[in-house]
Specification:
- This is Prolyl oligopeptidase family protein.
- Keywords: Signal.
- It contains 14 helices and 28 strands.
- By secondary structure, it is an alpha/beta fold.
- The chain has 3 domains: about 125-365, Alpha/Beta hydrolase fold, catalytic domain (Rossmann fold), CATH 3.40.50.1820; about 385-475, no CATH class; about 495-675, Chitobiase, domain 2 (2-Layer Sandwich).
- The protein has a 7-stranded mixed sheet with strand order 20-19-21-26-25-27-28.
- Strand 3 (about 160-170), helix 5 and strand 4 (about 195-200) form a beta-alpha-beta unit.
- The protein is globular, with a radius of gyration of 26 Å.
Amino acid sequence: MKQLLMICGTLALLANVARSDGPKDNNPDNVRQVPPPGIEVSDEDRGRLQQQLQELKTRLTELRKRDDPLSKNLMPDVEIFYRAVDQALRYDEFFAPGDIRKAEQVLEEGLSRASALLQGKAPWMHQRGLVVRGFRSRLDGTVQPYGLVVPEGYRVDGEKSYRCDLWFHGRGERNVEVQFIHQRMTSRGRIAPAETIVVHPFARYSNGNKFAGEIDTLEALAHAEQYYRIDPERTSVRGFSMGGAACWHLAVHYADRWFAATPGAGFSETPDFLRTFQNEELHPTWWEKKLWRLYDCPDWVENLIHCPTIAYSGEIDSQKQAADIMEVAFENAGMDMVHIIGPQTAHTIHPDSAQEIERRLASLAERGRERFPQAIQFVTYTLKYNRMHWLTVDALGQHWERAFVRASCPGRACDIEVTTENVTAMTLEFPAGWCPMDLQSEVTLNIDGNRMTAPRPKSDRSWRCQLHKDDTGRWQIGPRDTTGLVKKHNLQGPIDDALMDSFLFVAPDGASTHEMIEAWTQAELQHAIDHWRQQMRGDVRIKRADEVTDEDIARHHLILWGDASSNQLIQRVLPDLPVRWTAESIGIGEKDFAAATHVPAMIYPNSLNPERYVVLNSSFTYREYDYLNNARQVPKLPDWAIIDASEGSSSRWPGRITDADFFDESWQVRPVAVRE
């Protein structure tokens, strides 16, 4: 009987693999549209929806004229309903007849809220159960929705703080704004723990809560914390399928923020998953392999010593691969991973497993997260993710190579032990009230075998010590020298990083000297605008170069399109970029390329505002082919690339990449000999 069950399980597994995206989604020359084309909407339905939209637009216009704080603060809670249906009508995003009725219900709620707000009321602020909220994203200024499940016992005027579970949704190619909002208005979803606020981020559609989806998740949580009594010591991350992948990545990158993580199914890294689940033959460039380290979770597993983790898989689910590969990573790091397996279960959560997960989570929530543990360890590959409890890594020896810190501060004893790998500057800091060390004793640091005396704690029980390596590689107390260009947190690349904070597209205000480059620029600019809306569900801020103000330069990363002859801002910053660009040639490092057929894509600190980036000729770097499987949605270009426009763009690349690399830690071009 046992052998028969094993055979049946194997057949089910193979069937599940066969139902995956499959070989048809491995052909970059024949890529289906994501989201798919919508159904035809009758004139009658379209007219009715447009009439409701117009009515809601009129009320929104009245609200925008008001100067009261209530209207200003809560406008996004109304605008999300308008934008959802407007987008669906504009871009053919009704995918089933039932979506029309969903849109009507979405508009009904928007109209109801607008009417209430015009009367100075906001009844949804007191609502329990299912609540949809909205916030204005700092990335592009668009309103973005998220859902809540508010416990029935919650009172606005109460004092009790509540546990919060972030639940990350699975892949849904037809789950754009209308469908998402309606679902969050009508369904509690997979989880509804007692006395728990559940936050459902939209996360910019279908990207595994990466890139703009990652920022959306953090902004949704911050918005919910602003309006609801969420206990930051009892906030967890959870998800299944694509949401399980999101859970893995947010757990390893922000391990000190959560009291627990419960990833289910999904994927936890790129190459093995695509070979196993997608049956894809991979031929990555050397820089793509390095960039996999941004979101490949096995490389970051040691951080999970700070985040209790409960993995779940169905026994016969092909996506069990995600937890299996993480289990090996845990073992290699000297830890044993809890892996709850639903018996004879395919791609869903077994009821008994769900109960076991909830039992374990309830116990962990009673304890809450550990605020400032005496011993910490932290692994990173980029300064994008540079914090763990009382440690901040300020500089690396080399990006995209493993960097590691282990530090211990054993109670009142003032002997701190630190060992490092590929780290050249760091800050150790306990905020007021949290320093465990004796106030009257000298602090001794033993860092990589070097002993030194550090400042004593302050009288408010705070303590801060900055450290850096000198030119000889020896650790010294004090901050590193940052008078020149250096890579630092949120100014470290790669190109995609500029789209993870407030950005402005800067279109050419003239024409390129070269006809081919002019055509390529216009096509790629339009592609970037269209696909930011289509995939990241936003509308880019865009100005011509001659319209950009000093305020724009102060507020935004600048995404500059064109060349020095077509874009005056490129001409303005070009002397400070590590590229030689004339009408005849483009040079970077030891190589030169014909300017008539080549264009640079690049990220670099903005010489007009060194706390912001300039980017040349690129939006986010993955393209249509990568939309078909979320594991493919990783950076495709490093800090700079030279694109041959003569071969045209494709579903994978903006043109043929003739050269590409990362800048060094001082934003300088690396010699060819040290690449890879």
